[in-house]
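cron nightly-structures :: item 1 of 1
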Amino acid sequence: VQLQASGGGLVQAGDSLRLSCAASGRTFSSYAMGWFRQAPGKEREFVAAVSWSGSSTYYADSVKGRFTISRDNAKNTVYLQMNSLKPEDTAVYYCAARKIYDSGRTYPNRYDYWGQGTQVTVSS
């Protein structure tokens, strides 16, 4: 699976942004998907995950209620809708894929495939 993230940009605090991650291949629906982010000087951290069908989602506490992960298996795409953005959301955002959807969904090293990242900058 090859992943291509897009949709990042420079926004002001309180604004919204939607990230997309397009996947190649016919087996997209057999992969659980996740979004992670990495700020300068910090470790990559979990943001959100979605199950194969999209029926189950999971969020980091820091984004719960503000971000929404979803997927469209017909378009081989996973989305991250980000509302009420804060300066602390500034980071490079990565999408990732793995076969299993379980408690390991929050750990970067449990994912098999990664996109190239898209920069999100939130100014105050």
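cron nightly-structures :: done
The chain has a mean pLDDT of 96.
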